[in-house]
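Lab notebook page, bench 4
Experiment: in silico fold of construct C2
Operator: M.H.
Input chain length: 150 residues
Purpose: comparison with the prior construct
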Amino acid sequence: MKQGNLAIDMNHIEPARPRFSVIDGCRDDRSRDRVLAKPSRRSVSGHMVAPRRSLSPAVATVLIVALVVSFFAIGFASVLGRARAHSDAIASIQTETIEVASGDSLWNIAAERPVEGLTTQETVDFIRDANGLEVSMLSAGMELDVPVAS
C-alpha cells in the first residue's frame, strides 16, 4: 500500500484543458461562425472570477482633469465664501470711540471686542485701518474708533 504523494498515479491524470463558454443568440449564422468563445476564468476555489477591466488612457486623462478642475473649483468657492463673509462682517461693524489706557495694545483691545466672522488679527487690522494707524504702537490718551463690545 502506497501512502502520501506516492499514492498518486500521475499516468492517469489528464492535463488541464481550457474551459470554454458557449455563446448563443447571435443575430445571424454568419456572425455566429466568427464569434470566438473565451475560456472562463476560475479562482483557486473554483468560483467564477470577473475579468479585470482597465481604463483606457483617454478615459483616465478625462477623469484626472475632472478631479483637478473640481478640486480647484471647491478651493475657489471656499476662498470666495470666506472673502464674502469677511466683507459682510466688516460692513456690519458698529464702532465706538474709546480712550487708550496705559498698557493697552491693539491685540488686547481687539480681543476684548470680538466681531463675529473675524479673527482677532482681522479685528486688529480693522482698528488699524479705521484709525489710519501705520504701526501698532499706541499711546495712553489716544482716541480710537473700535468695534462696539458685545
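Observations: The chain has four helices and two strands. The helical segments are 29-34, 57-91, 106-112, 120-130.
Next step: discuss at group meeting.
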